[in-house]
Structures are given as C-alpha cells and as structure tokens.
Amino acid sequence: MSDFDYVIVGAGSAGCVLANRLSDSGAEVLLVEAGGPDRSPKIKIPAAFAQQFRTKLDWDYATGPEPGCDGRSLYVPRGKGIGGSSSMNAMLYVRGHRADYDGWRDEAGCAGWGWNEVLPYFVRSEHREAGASAVHGYGGLLDVAAPRDPRPLTDLIVAAARSLGHPADPDYNDGEPNGVCGVEVTQRRGRRWSAADAFLRPAAGRPNLTVLTGATALGVELRDGRARGVELAGRTPMAVARARDEVILAAGAIGSPQLLMLSGIGDPDKLGRVGVEPGVPLPAVGTNLQDHPYVVGIWDSTIGGSLADAERPAALADFLLRRRGPLTSTVAEAFLFARSDGGDGPPDVQFHIAPAYFADNGFEEHDGHAMTIGPVLVEPKARGEVTLTSSDPAAKPAIVGNHLTERADVDALVWGIKLARELAATAPLAAAAGREIYPGGSVEDDEALVADARRRVELLYHPVGTCRMGADDGSVVDPELRVRGVEGLRVVDASVMPTITRGNTNAPTIMIAEKGADLILGKEPPQLTA
Fold first, then answer.
1. Domain residues of the chain, as ranges?
2. Please, are residues 83 and 418 in contact by the beta-carbon 8 Å criterion?
3. How distant, in Å, are the alpha carbons of 246, 296, 298 from that of 434?
4. How far apart are CA 386 and CA 397, in angstroms?
5. What residues form DSSP beta bridges with 33?
6. Rounded to whole angstroms, how far apart are CA atoms 479 and 499?
7. Can you tell me the distance from the alpha carbon of 77 to that of 361, in angstroms, rounded to the nearest whole number?
8. Residue 498, preceding bond cis, omega within 30 degrees?
9. What are 58's strand-pairing partners?
10. How far apart are CA 92 and CA 192, in angstroms?
C-alpha cells in the first residue's frame, strides 16, 4: 500500500507524538524515518548519550564558519533513528518560561499559543512521578522523574548558589523558572524514556500505523498547489508515499526546511543558485535559526564525588542490576536560572551544573574528578540560517548561526562565566574546587574572557525557528502550522518556534506535536482539571 491519510516525515520527538495521536483517531498513518531502530545500549544508558555523537546514530551537522566565533565550526548533533534527538539528548525536561509562549501569541501573532493555552498539552503528555498538580500531569505517556542517584558534588554547587542569594526553585517547570534547582528527567526506572518509548511503542501494534525505517525522504510531491505525497529512497517498498489528507514534516529545524527547499518551497533566488526549480516563493524558509550557545567553567574536584566513578565496572553492574548509580545520570544534574542584568524579568542565562568533566561536546577526556558549571544563553539575539548547498538530498545543508555576533549575547555569557567563578569560590563548594581548568588562571579581564568565549563556545544542540510560525505573510507556517501557499502540508516540530524557549527544547517540541495533532484532527484543546 502506498496511500495513507497522513504521511509523517521524521520519527523524532514530534513525529512519534503525531504517529500516536493521529493513528489513535483511526486514520491510516505512515511514519518515515531515515535512520534505524533504537536498540543501542548507548541510547538506553543515560550517561552514555555523548557516545552516540558522530556515529551512525547521528546526522552529525555543523555550523560555520561562524563570524562571531573566530570563524570556527560548531557541532550540532541530531538523532538519526527511531526517537530522533529524544534518543540522543540529555533527557532534561524543561518547559521554559511563560513569557516565551505569551511572546509567541502577543508578539508573533500566534493565537492559541500563549502559556495558558499550551499548558494543557504539557500536562496531557506528562506522567510526573512526583504526582499531579495544577500544572503537572500524572498518567500521561511521557515519564518525568527526579534523578535516581545525583552525585554529592552537585549538592555542593547548589549550596554555593544558595549562599550567594539565589533562591531555591521548588518547580522550575511551573512557567516561572528562577533560582537553583535539581533537574527533572525523561527517564523511567533509571533508563532513558524517549519519545519512541513514550508515544511510538504503545501505538506499534495498530494495523493503521506503518513505520518505515531506513527510508529517506527526497522531497514533497506537489501538484496543483497541493502536497500529494513524499518521494522516498532507501529501504522502502514505494517510490512515493501518497497522502490523502496531509503531508506532515517533523524532521526538525534542519531537516524540515531542507525538505521544503528541495521541494521548491523557499527563496526563489537561493533555490535557483543550487539548481532547484522554484515552485512556491516563501523566502523565510530556513531563516530565523536560533540555538543556545554556552561556555563552560571547569574545575578539578579535590573530594571526588563526580561522574568519573561511572567508568568503574561496579557502575555498570549497578545500572544493569538495579538501574541505579552514576550511569543513570544525565551529566547535568542541576540548573541555575538567572538574569545577567540583575533585573526582575525572565532569566536570560540557564546554568547547567554537572559533577563531571564536559568539554568539547564530551570528546575531550580528563583523568580525574572534575565539575562543570556552564552558563547557557537562553535569550539569544543572534539569528542564523539553513540553506541548501546542492539539489542532491544527500548533501548536508549549510548552517550559520551567527552566534556571538550580537554584543548583548557576548556580555551575558561573560557575566555567566564570572558567576561560575564566584560559585567555585563560595562555601561550601570552595573546599572542593581545585585547579581551574577552564577558562584558566591566565584568562582574567573582560577582554580575555570575550576572546575565550569566542574560542571555546559550543551549542547546546537546540536548533529551532527555521520554519517560523506567525500571523504575517512572511512566516513559513500559520498558527495552525500549515505551510503558506501549499494545501495539505504542515510542519510540526521545533522549527516552527518564532523564538527559542528559555531552556532545553525537547519538552516544548513534544508540546508542539501534541497541539499540532489536535489542530490536524480539528479537536478541541484539552482542559485542565483542578
């Protein structure tokens, strides 16, 4: 069979949600995924997430050259396989700030996307092990839990933040994150609980859901102003999967705009330069790229207590037998949300606090115990772009984020590394903080800190915004997530965000798919119960 009601491209966080909700309605659904299954132990063991980087499980993208980062290329891993990046990420469940969504509604003109309107979708997904509340769900498909075995070193860093006057935040997912807190994670009994685990597997036995792995989408088939299907290659019994109702792109902030452009939907001049016949003029496709840049401060730990213990054979035994120990860690075990200008507005910096050595995306090794305090810019001003380099679907697109080209972004990160240093010098952490490895003692004044940031900045792997949602004709999709100028085609993933959320982006992406499924099916939004 090559005809379906809905054809979904991408079995990542959004695609798994859509496959579940749409097939639950009785519709015939095809889910197309270029990667393979999610059976690797590197997926299941939380602390091993970075071991997937630059393997067959990774699309292995990179930006650059970046004009604000000494012309460097910045690594952007993306999960390639069932579960997508929810099978590769650090499992941190972060909704963001209510101002993010109210901004989508009020400033971007996206009716229905304010905090009070999207909150029921967060709640519907959630099975929060701590129990239900006015803003949390219990009994949903996505397990959200506290870490099973956080390292003692994390407690010292949190205590130092409290000593400096940062408040304890009892629930950073209530819409107003502020202060220091332990993380919440998408895990069940100490192992990763990806979107595939949560949403796809419960639907796997439905006769009206077909999942194709190893099948690459080449482009959307357009005819008479409508999306008719998706052209496929690879391990697929069909050259074209046809959609009776809609084609839905859920390939992420890099894959979705790439597919639109390969299909002739985008800026006509840019498409023509790489040999793609322009079909639907939509210049904003691929623009508005945003991500979360960060720079780490790292210190030796003089008291141990770090994730270096995960290398011991006993740690693997503890994980396999009891699902406990350091291998259950997501590396970042606490957050500090703060505002660099000292004002009362939403946070613009989110510190990831890790009882571990984490530099160069986890590729850099260190012999011994260490701790990492990484300020992450969560309100970036910089905007970048994804563009085609070729009409060949196998060619990786060009990505430039323009990170650190805005002075406000640089200033916020420099403030963040100064605060990280202050934390390391504050009791009770000061007694455990040994040699400063990064930035290092020779990096002292602001000029040196700026140069160091440009030299070492990395990305937190949260690309969004390249198929911007908006009420204006210049947006790529409307607030119903329909691609402008084409019938029967939607984009439902992180690429539709008008602005990036103030925190890790997996939970918002799942929310977007939950709401997107209701928009597609014409269903009323869920109601919160007291």
1. 1-45+75-142+192-287+462-530
2. no
3. 58, 16, 10
4. 6
5. 213
6. 14
7. 10
8. no
9. 79
10. 10
Would you give the DSSP letter of residue 318?
A: H
pTM confidence score = 0.97
Residues marked as catalytic = 462
Q: Nearest CA to 431 among 179, 152, 165, 169?
A: 152
Distance between CA atoms of 129 and 187, rounded to whole angstroms? 10
Distance (Å, rounded) from C-alpha 236 to C-alpha 90?
31
The pLDDT tens digits along the chain (530 residues) read 589 999 999 999 999 999 999 999 999 999 999 999 999 999 999 999 999 999 999 999 999 999 999 999 999 999 999 999 999 999 999 999 999 999 999 999 999 999 999 999 999 999 999 999 999 999 999 999 999 999 999 999 999 999 999 999 999 999 999 999 999 999 999 999 999 999 999 999 999 999 999 999 999 999 999 999 999 999 999 999 999 999 999 999 999 999 999 999 999 999 999 999 999 999 999 999 999 999 999 999 999 999 999 999 999 999 999 999 999 999 999 999 999 998 889 999 999 999 999 999 999 999 999 999 999 999 999 999 999 999 999 999 999 999 999 999 999 999 999 999 999 999 999 999 999 999 999 999 999 999 999 999 999 999 999 999 999 999 999 999 999 999 999 999 999 999 999 999 999 999 999 999 999 999 999 988 75
Residue 311 DSSP symbol: G
Q: Which fold is adopted by the domain 1-45+75-142+192-287+462-530?
A: FAD/NAD(P)-binding domain (3.50.50)
Closest CA to 502 of 94, 77, 88: 94
**Reduced to 3 states, what is the DSSP secondary structure of residue 421?**
helix
Sign (positive/negative) of CA torsion 16, 18, 21, 23? negative
Single-letter residue type at 89: N
